[in-house]
Amino acid sequence: MGRAFEVRKAAMAKTADAKVKIYSRYGKEIYIAAKSGEPNPTMNLELARVIEKAKADQVPNDIINRAIEKAKGGLDEHYDALRYEGFGPGVSTLIVDTLTNNTNRTFSEVRNCFTKTGSKVGVNGSVSHAYDQVGILTFKDQNEDAVLEVLLMGDVDVIEVESHAEEISVIVNPKDLYLAKETLEKDLAVDDFLTLEITMLAHDYHKLNDDDKQNFEKLLSMLDECEDVQNVYHNIILE
Question: 56 and 26, same structural domain?
Answer without folding.
Answer: yes
